[in-house]
């Protein structure tokens, strides 16, 4: 039986994240099992699915593990979980100001304590162009200042809610495989990797220095199969392209039209076709197209 989520109990992510889950969220939640051992989100980013699940009583999971290779993001979640007052105090020092933005951006965050590092991260996220997180070849955040009317740098209520949701959650900074390899029968894994680009000319989103290329996508599809063999239910999202159709042809695929709002090129905002792949058979809804294993478009 899938998880019966309720819109009023969905907690919103604290960061704006490329790949954040707008409309796709309802579709994703409708496939989540009603109960599980550990909920594992190995490419958590804004963690929209985790926060949506965590707001429900009782929670559908007994334990949860969030992982991302972005060190600033994970420092922010640790600060939220372990030191909310410190994080709020550090955030109060920021205001919406161009010079402060560039001064803050130029500082190396690697030696900061979690509260200061998390506050820097939230400030940049709320005031940079489009809320994007992009890094240069040296791994330094390089998104320019954004124009907003009155950006909410400190949303105390939102942070408190997220902090409660993160209590007791294991937070891992690193590659997704460090957590998928720990999944056991009865656990549930939601994989939301950097997406395959829609066209050859489109850039991979530079979330990190290492990037996530075609070989990584192939390895990830292998991981979905490995999890199925272990009896671990896993769900994955990506763009609907020839490559992903080929990669996931032995799984169950649902195609969904999604409106995307984060794109630096305004003409490229709009509907895109995305897929939800599951490594177990899911029921069929009305509007969605489902490709069963071995079935083409
Ligand atoms: C599509 S986003 C996830 C969006 C997220 N579901 C949300 O709700 O905002 C992909 C994430 O994967 C992370 N990432 C990229 N390569 C990774 C890797 N090898 N292991 C773990 N995380 C990785 C990026 O930092 C980014 O946050």
Walk me through the structure.
- The protein is an alpha/beta fold.
- It has 2 domains: 7-69 and 174-202 and 225-291, Rossmann fold (3-Layer(aba) Sandwich); 74-161, Adenine-specific Methyltransferase, domain 2 (Orthogonal Bundle), CATH 1.10.1020.
- It contains 10 helices and 8 strands.
- The protein has helices at residues 24-29, 48-54, 71-82, 84-91, 98-106, 114-127, 156-166, 177-180, 214-229, 242-247; strands spanning 36-41, 61-68, 170-173, 188-191, 233-239, 252-260, 270-278, 289-291.
- Strands 3-2-1-4-5-7-6-8 form an 8-stranded mixed beta sheet, sandwiched between helices.
- It is globular, with a radius of gyration of 19 Å.
- It starts with 23 loop residues before the first helix and ends in a 6-residue tail after the last strand.
- S-adenosylmethionine (SAM) is lined by residues 17, 19-21, 42-43, 45-48, 67-70, 175-176, 192-194, 207-208, 212.
